[in-house]
Amino acid sequence: MIWYIIKRLLQLVPVIIGVTIIAFSLIHIAPGDPARTMLGQHATQKEINEIREKYGLDEPIIVQYGIWLSDVLRGDFGRSIMTNDLVINEISSRFPNTIELAVAAMLFAILIGGLAGIISASKQYSVTDYTVMGVALFGISMPVFWLGIMLMMIFGVILGWLPIGGRIDLFIPFQRITGFMIIDAIITFNLPALVSSIRHLILPAVALGTIPMAIIARVTRSSMLEVLRQDFIRTERAKGLSERAVIYKHAVRNAMVPVVTVIGLNFGLLLSGAILTETVFSWPGVGRLVVDAVYERDYPLVVGCILIFAIVFVIVNLITDILYTYIDPRIKYE
Amino acid sequence: MKKIILPLICLTVIVSHMTGCVEEQVGEKVLIFGMAGDADKLDPADVTDGESISRMDNIFEGLVEYTPGATDIQPALATSWNVSDDGLNITLDLRKNVKFHDGTDFNADAVVFSFERQYNTTHPYHEYGEWAYWGYMFSDIESVQKINDYQVIIHLKNQNAAMMTSLAMFTVAMVSPTNAEKWGEDAFKHPVGTGPFEFVEWVKDDHITLKKNEDYWRDPPKLDKLIFRVIEDPSSRLLAIQAGEIHGMEYPDPASFESIEDDEDLQLLSQAGMNVGYLAMNTGYGYYDENENGVRDDDESWVKTPGYFEPLTHVSVRKAINYAIDKTSIVENLYKGTAIVAKNGMPPFMLGYNDDIEDYEYDPEMAIELLEQAGYPNGFNTTLWVMPVSRPYMFDPPKIAEAIQSYLANVGINVELYQIDWSTYLEETENGEHPMCLLGWTGDNGDPDNFMNVLYGPNSASIGTAGNVAFYNRSEVQEKFTAALQIYDTDERARLYEEAQVLIHEDAPFVYLAHATQNIVFRSNVKGYTLNPTERKFFYPVDIE
Amino acid sequence: MNKWDLVMGTFRNIHAYLMKFSIYRVKYVGARPRETKTQELVRRFRYNKSAVFGLALILILVFMAIFADFIALNDPNPSPPELENSLKPGFWDENGVEGKPLGTDMLGRCVLSRIVYGARISLSVGFVAVGIATVLGVTIGVLAGYFGRWVDSILMRCVDIIFSFPALLLAIVIVATIGQGLDKAMIAIGIVYSPQMARIMRGSVLYIKEMEYIEAQKAIGSNNIRIIFRHILPNSLSPVIVYGTLLMASAILDAAALGFLGLGAQPPTPEWGAMLSESRFYIVSGAWWAATFPGIAIIFAVLGLNLLGDGLRDILDPRLKT
Predict the structure, then answer these.
(1) Which residue of chain A has the CA closest to C159?
(2) Alpha-carbon radius of gyration of chain C
């Protein structure tokens, strides 16, 4: 088992190197002088000369890559052109917000989707089944930004129940400790902040989580169906166990295996969706940062964001793989 | 599972109605104002954008200030002044017992510092900024000197009829020298002035918080805190103010005016705006202002701008474009009546406005004829530069650009739209990289020179710092502007400006689109705010009931 | 051999010959008509309700795309613009304008007509993007799967690297580098989806490679290229068709996303995603139609393709179900 993890980690290395190469080459593929690409159009000649020195832009490209990589490993991603602040600061102040959104969306997706899938499977071919699966099919066909706009319209504009933008109402004082607003609000016993931040989280989380929810519903259903057909289920029923116990105690546990993989595989969808959802709801996260950075041609920031996204994505895939082998010992770790 | 769902739904519904309780909790008077964008820098002399200016107008003050709602001046940090007979020297008496927010005394040293860092290239702080406005408005100042601790004298190179009103502008607000020393090049992030509010914090792209200055030299303001919150999306801003999350906002979408007026909790403040929005066509030639004196000297010759586009160098082509666009329709339907159609480069209430000029009517056939005459029977292809942000003179530039694109397609001119972020946009247009661009201007001091000379004078066609983005270079026009600035007789000035407008109209380097009204929305319980024609936002007298 | 045997033998030969013809079999021998492979597929297709429904949706969209000029009631980009019709509602409201049943957008353009013309754009973007992805992916997959060993390792590592970026993010980044515009968006999406195609193709190739008749071909000395083109490719086709359809659905979603972010179609092109982003701010002022209907159009297209893809998967290769 440990060997498997180590092996997978080793396999990861060339992939991560490849990712860094792509990120690095962006600055050089972009039209124009790389020094200007990194500093923006405003830069004075003095600043350009400094940058040329610092990154060795007159050296062969391999050396440049080496210098850049060593900086990155130390956490120095350069400075954002837009704000003149360190890229690492820009990203780290927004990163917790995106994580909160992603986690909330995932919880929503797993709870509702899983439930829907289980109910659907246990009532196969009934009206409930077809309805749930129909809705799920719609769910995976919906553009997430349209869903966000519709939710905003219905719950924000027409009904006025929930706020439509931002992270929290501003006249509420709050302290940032970890950066995760909900956790901070709980730690500092700040009830208004807690309430406000949860209210702002609901719509974006639902919008973001709907597509994964639909996928999870479908996969859970098919996985449950397969499991329910198996012999050991018949044994449980024969033993006299109630249908409910059969489903919840035995079937679900076994059916969850492929669902876990699916969650991991679709994490990329979640990240992409976060970019769109954050734009629609003005959520101060890394997704919106990437879009703004691309729009403003703020290459250092773009590169920093892609690296973070890719690394997170790769790590999540690795964890999914490992969890998968852990849960299902039947899988050979090839 | 079903047992959990119902209580969960109830909880959600309860939670979502809870904000109402929260608002009453805060004891102090906090006014949250929704802005469409974040400030660029918080150094009053180094910015040109309305977003930065709005925040700083509550932190800093100048020697003189505008009377509420007008562009007449009254004493502020200067108690009295005297202009010499030859008009070249202004002596000012400074107010005593005023302190900056960091405790430094306000005196002549501070005044000299605030001015000198902008014009004196050897001043240690000169390199920390670009001081763009100095070249536009203040290049006539030769030097500023201290007479004694509470008196200064300003020496001018030429007579300048607009100089006193210009001293009320934000660029010559007083900054604390000790603060600049302390922070060096980061001083723009830590503003310290003498104004009614003190700077607390700036969270980029989110909000800027100011608090009441207890030691203000007038009575302290009624508000305890003033927070500028960035909400870029106009519909989010509107919903926020409707929900009571913010107490005021700028740039409401004209399409929402009806719903605002119907809402009892909101009040819409409107005023004719001192601005102009236009489509500028690059007539082709600019100059490099090598010696940075703001004037085109004889050795600085006309060269082609990067955006030189042959068809636009013909007057008939430019007139054709004027005929091809239906300005009335744009103003009625896109501005939704929040503007008036513009036929000249400055709003009608300005001194020297020439009302006798007849505007180009909407006439596509005439446009096609003119194009044929100029040798372009099949039209041509070009690019239109558009800015992505709301401006006071144009609420939704991309939409207006699309409409223009459509009108021009009708006469055979195919236009591609080019959008880029606002600061790069300003740079590229100042550099003349565009064949056509949308832009505009809000007046700073109520003087016609602030429009005409800055925007339409050939001196302003300097590549890299151009205010004249059509690069219009008819020398007679510049002569009139220069002369008008140095005369104090208002009738004579008016005559010169009127003549200039006739020439500009003939050469048609611009399609003047609109003068937009200034609109701000507040909640009904916010009192005391007065709109200022310069669109600057002063929150000192404001109170919440 | 006597004469009788000769006669019977001749009859048997004739019978054997005539057995080739289905009409003989059915009428004189009483056999059921044998299906060709194609007929079998069509039959299975017809019985699969979702596939039929999906195909129907797609055909409607294709019809809209091809005959847009005749179906659309108005010009999607009238020049000069009819600004006086700005933000008018549709047939449900008495303030609506004649001939514009779904209302107008901010510039007075008919929402319905723009949606109809938008079908052209979305379908072609989906098609081209998936086309690029298929060409790239099939090439890589076949090379990796067939030649195996180090070729496989290197190619799959490269594929993994592209795979480690979330799809939309990579597309955004590619567009940031090569520029905005519908054509660049197509290329970006095509590149982003090629890893998936490559993996599918590789799996298929690996499976087929093991089959006996490939071994046989090698044994008789056919060269590699011949084997690839005549045997492996045609048999790997079914997963490509299935995934091609499903990927096209995602491609349309991603193209709309890029359009929404302003990185894809440029004004005044009536692309569905761009239409959404243009009009979303007017919902607050009460003009909900300009943003709602394009979204529904996107759902239509994507749903149709998903159903079709699911159905095809059921029919062609149930093995592919995850």
Answers:
(1) A15
(2) 27
